[in-house]
Prior knowledge:
Helix content is about 30%, strand content about 15%. It has 3 helices and 9 strands, in the order ααβββαββββββ. Strands 1, 2, 3, 4, 5, 6 and 9 form a 7-stranded mixed beta sheet that branches. A two-stranded antiparallel ribbon has the order 7-8. It has about 200 residues and is of the alpha+beta class. It has one domain (about 45-195).
Amino acid sequence: MIKKFQKGFTLIELMIVVAIIGILAAIAIPNFIKFQARSKQSEAKANLKAIFTAQKAYYQEKDHFSSFTGDIGYEPERNNRYAYFLDSAPVLEIRSASSISNAATYTGIDVDTFKYGSTASPGNTLPTGASCAPAAGISGTPATTFSAAAIGNVDSDASWDQWTISSDSRTFTSGAACTADAANPSGEPTNNYNDVNL
């Protein structure tokens, strides 16, 4: 009688396969997290463009810009990961409950802390001191210039992703604390501090 040998994998072959899968996972997972965070940045770009459009429409009707979200009719959807600022010392619409109260006196919208928790909110103070720190507010008499800012923590680390948009074209000086494009045209969101790439 002839014995048939069963074919299979040896322990060494299985260990090599597991090691290869581990190496691929070690490379792929951080890149996946970075791409996921980059996709979340599209919220800031879209909402800043919406602020720009709302401000321009308000300006056509009233001949000045406003720093009040109620005046320009800006109310983003819930689940926002970024806080939006129309003034450098904002009165934020707080989104910590299941329902929110709209008021004409708000000059900013906080992160939806009902969903993401209070640690996701930058508070009501814009960062200062950087070469291209986010600025928000209106200027001129009457208010003929505006800038708005978006700040969020989309990759759950200690630093904040910062974006701005303005009615004027701007020039920035690049540096360690500034990732904005050197020439920023009017109405184009710029990433003042790109927390995702760091």
